[in-house]
Amino acid sequence: MWDRRVLERKEVLVGSFSVSVQWQGVGDGFIWACSGLVGIHHLWNVPWCCIGDFNIIRFPSERLGNPRLTPAMELFSEFVEDLNLIDLPLEGGSYTWSRGSARPLMSRIDRVLVSHDWEEHFPDVTQRILPRPVSDHFPIQVEVGGMARGKSPFRFENMWLKTDGFIDKVQSWWNRHSFHGTPSFAQLLETLKCLDAKEEEFGLSDAESYERVEARSEVENLLSLEEISWRQKSRMLWIKEGDNNTKFFHKMANSRRTAQVVNFYKNLYQESEEWRPFVEGLEFDQIDESERDWLERRFEKEEILLALNELAGDKAPGPDGFSLAFFHHCWRVVEGDVLAVFEEFYLHSKFEKSLNVTFIALISKKNDASNIRDFRPISLVGSLYKLLSKV
Fold first, then answer.
1. What are the structural domains, with CATH classification, of the chain?
2. 99, 116, 212, 379: most buried by Cβ count inside 10 Å?
3. Which domain of life does the protein's organism represent (predicted)?
4. Percent over 70 (pLDDT), the chain
């Protein structure tokens, strides 16, 4: 309840554990807000990690061009200390927010605060700034340690095929033999990273600010194709583009393989050495000379292309990183090299050993799979080897 002769209620925001009200003084027009908390005490008894945009800094060094300590900074620091929280050090940069202009505004208003018992459970925790593709806030990644991972292999994304002029770019890249991951997207992120670093140190000109706006717009367009990428990674052909099943996609695409898993299936499916009967003395039908010559003829472009078109383009790629959709759409670019591989195999009856390298993936047979027997192993072979075996 409030005295309507003194205060006028402007806005009300009700959260799970809070009620916030914006007031305006009837007499002087002064606008202010009041927030009340309720029912949250039981959450404070567990390890706590608080992440977000606090819209306030703790020290003058956390704002570009800010020379003095203000009462608001002191109050925020007291809040952190009173709750016995740890303010994790920031890696990868000094500021988490900026507003692009000739004289940029930059500050660290986003942060991660954790309780001591939470930090004890994750002793190697760090917070790191990531490249900022779209927002005026830099994304912050909380890293708690764990399994060390090697460099991710190259993966061709089918969504790139929907980019205007992509096949012409492939023609240019293919002729230079320079395949280094995702050239267009990586270049955009690198451009944004360089412009952000320059803004922090020197500021940006009008032309550079416009360049950053254009780069962010292009990144937004690429990010809108994310569902197509996750569909390919899921390797479930019955999921159509546009289905919003990202949780399922992430679960399937981010499963990890270990040496123990490989050894388990090696022992599970390996045949034991047993005596087998001989097949000597059995007579089999033979092919005539014309049939033999037909089987031993050179590979023809038409039969290679026919076999390629019969292979699904959405299946997850093998170690070479290229999906068959790439060969479907870029055949005029890669045709000569693919035919050369088949000609080499015909002349020498062998191919590079790396062509038959295989990835082993695990697909769960049931929900909440926990035992290794609950997974079915599948092999992901390279696209060229798959095409060669099909022909």
1. 1-43 (no CATH), 44-143 (3.60.10.10), 255-267+287-391 (no CATH)
2. 212
3. Eukaryota
4. 78
